[in-house]
Structure formats: structure tokens, C-alpha cells
Design a protein that fits this description.
The protein has helices spanning 2-11, 27-32, 40-44, 57-64, 84-96, 126-136, 151-178, 184-198, 202-211, 228-236, 242-256, 267-272, 280-289; strands at 17-18, 35-36, 49-52, 75-78, 100-107, 119-124, 141-144. By secondary structure, the protein is α/β, with parallel strands linked by helices. It binds NADP nicotinamide-adenine-dinucleotide phosphate.
């Protein structure tokens, strides 16, 4: 990802200095016009704008702690995926060394950087965002969410939650039809338009959740949304039911609390209140399946 971002800034004509822990990985960038720094300190002191694209929160500290004194007066843009709390910690740490901090969540894979569809979500110093815009905009659409540095990773991880849960659901479906000899590729051709069509439901669910109107008309009830048959079908086929059982557990908690007639969107309340847990899904599948 760091190479893709640096390549975009070089291509846009911005003087760019690059550094990587393992030497020799910047040859293509150097060939394109970047300067390779001999050390982290050399890299940090080369520009007023320092962009961290490492692995995780720990790697940012491992790399920058020894040269923190050189950050004063500079802007640090952290594009490493971190939790909101980790971003807030990095912002406070950078501030304590006189640096201005901007956090970024990259909503793209490396091949998309600088092209259509790439977006980077930012939060932290507005002044840093405005000042760095000429560079930031070489990577994709730049959107600033607020002064709280934790906001960009919050949006980033919330969007990834939807993505990974959807992919896991798809993989579960692949395993199910696979027991009938259907290839994953065949299933994907059917699943893709189905999932795209289902995204039209998101706005309606969002409206219900924003108004907390789970008993309003026209909603699919939690009782109706019972996934026990889905869990049972998976177990009967000798598959792990983990993916669908997780959803059923969230449904069960609302039904157990007496909300079975309410709409499916009420599942969000199970997520908002993780205190109460249930082992019901397991008990139920044992009873219903009768196999264990
Ligand atoms: N790839 C994506 O599609 C994507 C999308 C959105 C966000 N991101 C985020 O972008 C960041 C980089 O991802 P990536 O895909 O480029 O990962 P990657 O290919 O695994 O590269 C990791 C980079 O971090 C360096 N690194 C790892 N640990 C380090 C340490 N302790 N100290 C110094 N450098 C260290 C590696 O250096 P070496 O070459 O020496 O190993 C390498 O340059 C991650 O936070 C990731 O979550 C990636």
C-alpha cells in the first residue's frame, strides 16, 4: 500500500522521500523519481508532511518513537489501520512531540490508489487536512469527518464489519451448495446480484433504527426471521453453523427479552447491549438436529 501511495504522489509531481524497513523494496519508486532515505530520521526530516504506511499501531511506535524529536512542526498522516482508541493515542503522542496529526482510513486496495473508486477517510486536525489536500487528493477522494482522530478508523472499521460479515455469509453459502457439488463460481454468479438487490433494504432498516420504531408497520418480525432451519440445514450437511448461528444468537436475545413481534432491525440492540448472552442457539440445534 505504501508503494502505491508513494507512486501516486510521485506521478503527481510532489517531491517524495520513501523509507522501508527492509531495504531494496523502493527501487521502482526511485526509478520513478522518488528519493530513498537511508534512515527513518532522514525520511522524517525530509518533508513537512510525514505519511506512515506500516503494519499496525505497534509498528508506528516502533518506527517513530526513536525519532519523535524530529516530528516537531511537521504533520503526521497515519494511514495504518488502527482502532479509534489507538488513533487517539497516536494523536496525543504526536501532539506531545509538537506534531499535527491526521488519521486516515484507506477504502481501497493498492491497485485502486489514484484511480476511480478510491477513497480515504480522514479525521484529526482540519488544518492538517486542508494543508495536505494537494497530496491527499492524489490517492483518491478525500473526506474529513471531524477533529476527533478516532472518527476515520471508526467509519473504516464499521464499513469493514459490513464487508467481512457479507463475505463470511457468502462463504457459508458456498459451503452449503458445495455439499450438492455446486462450484463456488457458479454460486457467486447467483449470489452477487442477490446481495446487491438486498442492499436496497439498508436505508429502510436505517430509518427504523434511527427512529427506534421496531414495532412499526411493514417490518419482518424477529419471530419470522428465525434462522434455526438455516443452522439445522448446515449441521445436517456436516458444516460449521458458526456464521448463521451468530446471527441467530443476536435474534434470540431480543426474542428472549419479549420482542419477537418486533422487526428484524432490532438485532442492532443486541449488538449495542452485549451484556446479556445466550447459549440457546446451541441447545436448540442439538434438540432439533438430534445428531449430537
Ligand atoms: N493492502 C490493502 O488493501 C489495504 C487497504 C486498506 C488499508 N491497508 C492498511 O495499510 C497498512 C499497510 O498495509 P499493506 O497491505 O501495505 O501491508 P504489507 O504489504 O504487509 O506491508 C506492511 C509494511 O509495513 C512494514 N512493517 C511491518 N512491520 C513493521 C515494523 N514493525 N516496523 C517497520 N515497518 C514495518 C513492512 O516492511 P517490510 O517490507 O520490511 O516487511 C511493509 O512495508 C496496514 O495498516 C493495512 O491495514 C491496506
Amino acid at each position: 500500500m505504501g508503494s502505491a501511495l508513494a507512486a501516486a504522489t510521485v506521478a503527481a509531481g510532489h517531491p517524495t522521500t520513501v523509507w522501508n524497513r527492509t531495504p531494496g523494496r523502493a527501487d521502482a519508486l526511485v526509478g520513478a523519481g522518488a528519493r530513498e532515505a537511508a534512515s527513518v530520521r532522514d525520511a522524517v526530516t525530509a518533508s513537512p508532511l510525514v505519511v506512515a504506511v506500516l503494519l499496525d499501531h505497534a509498528s508506528v511506535h516502533q518506527t517513530l518513537d526513536p525519532v519523535a524529536d524530529a516530528l516537531g512542526g511537521r504533520t503526521l498522516v497515519n494511514l495504518v489501520t488502527t482502532t479509534p482508541e489507538e488513533s487517539r493515542e497516536l494523536a496525543a503522542w504526536a501532539g506531545s512531540h509538537g506534531a499535527t496529526y491526521l488519521d486516515g482510513g484507506i477504502m481501497a486496495v493498492p491497485g485502486m490508489i489514484g484511480g476511480p473508486g478510491a477513497e480515504v477517510l480522514y479525521s484529526g486536525s482540519r488544518a492538517a487536512f486542508d494543508g495536505a489536500r494537494p497530496v491527499l487528493d492524489t490517492w483518491g477522494e478525500s473526506t474529513w469527518f471531524g477533529e476527533d482522530p478516532g472518527l476515520a478508523p471508526l467509519y473504516d472499521l464499521a464499513l469493514l464489519a459490513g464487508m467481512y460479515a457479507m463475505f463470511a455469509g457468502f462463504f457459508h453459502g458456498v459451503a452449503m451448495v458445495g455439499t450438492a457439488g455446486v462450484s463456488a463460481s457458479d454460486f457467486a454468479r447467483r449470489a452477487a446480484p442477490w446481495l446487491v438487490a438486498m442492499t436496497s433494504e439498508l436505508a429502510g432498516y436505517a430509518d427504523v433504527i434511527d427512529r427506534r420504531d421496531y414495532a412499526g408497520p411493514g417490518q419482518q418480525s424477529l419471530d419470522f426471521s428465525d434462522l434455526t432451519h438455516l443452522v439445522r440445514a448446515s449441521e445436517e450437511a456436516g458444516l460449521s453453523a458458526d456464521v448463521v448461528a451468530a446471527v441467530q444468537a443476536l435474534i434470540d436475545r431480543q426474542v428472549d427479552a419479549g420482542h419477537g413481534a418486533d422487526g428484524f432491525a432490532r438485532v442492532v440492540e443486541s449488538i449495542r447491549d452485549p451484556a446479556r448472552t445466550t447459549a440457546r442457539i446451541h441447545d436448540r440445534s442439538v434438540t432439533a438436529g438430534g445428531a449430537r
